[in-house]
């Protein structure tokens, strides 16, 4: 017998012997209980709203300064002569504008307006999420528990492996 034949025979005997030693098959187990595995997860959200708050400001007019400036310029022009007249006109216009502005805005007209203010806050948004099912089942008098991604119902398909004890 050649060496190749002997080696092939040993490999074949070993391969057949190991298949004869173990057997895998599928069967069904009875489901005893199914418990959903849940967790609480927070998905925070931002909640915003616009509120209107009163804001006061003083209303200022410009008409008094214009009229006062013109009147002061005319009065200043009446005083003096030559190049002094130009200086008096300018000084009268400035003084008249200041007096006119104070007269128009001295009563302190206050205007109240509503100004929008955006207010935001973060609120918790807790949600329940399913992570699978704890399945307790019975197969040939033994009880087992496994976490599964689905609810198997009343019966659970199981893979059974049988091997002799060595």
UniProtKB/TrEMBL annotation:
Main localization (coarse): membrane
Subcellular location: Membrane
InterPro entries, per the entry: Bact_OM_lipoprot/Surf_antigen, Gly_zipper_2TM_dom
Record keyword 4Fe-4S present: no
A Pfam family assignment: Rick_17kDa_Anti
Signal peptide start and end residues: 1-22
Keywords carried by this UniProt record: Membrane, Signal
A single GO cellular-component term on record: outer membrane
Sequence ranges assigned to domain Glycine zipper 2TM in this UniProt record: 63-103
Coiled-coil ranges (or none): none
Recorded superkingdom: Bacteria
Entry annotated with the keyword Cell wall biogenesis/degradation: no
UniProt name for this protein: Glycine zipper 2TM domain-containing protein
């Amino acid at each position: 017998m050649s060496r190749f034949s002997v080696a092939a025979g040993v490999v074949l005997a070993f391969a057949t012997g190991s298949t004869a030693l173990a057997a895998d098959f599928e069967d069904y187990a009875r489901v005893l209980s199914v418990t959903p595995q849940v967790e609480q997860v927070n998905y925070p959200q931002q909640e915003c709203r616009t509120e209107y708050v009163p804001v006061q400001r003083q209303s200022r007019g410009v008409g008094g300064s214009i009229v006062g400036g013109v009147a002061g310029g005319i009065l200043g022009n009446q005083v003096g002569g030559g190049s002094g007249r130009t200086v008096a006109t300018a000084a009268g216009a400035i003084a008249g504008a200041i007096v006119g502005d104070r007269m128009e805005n001295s009563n302190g007209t206050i205007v109240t307006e509503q100004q929008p203010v955006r207010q935001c806050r973060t609120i918790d948004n807790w949600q329940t999420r399913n992570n699978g099912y704890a399945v307790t089942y019975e197969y040939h008098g033994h009880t087992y528990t496994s976490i599964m991604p689905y609810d198997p119902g009343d019966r659970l398909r199981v893979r059974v492996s049988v091997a002799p004890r060595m």
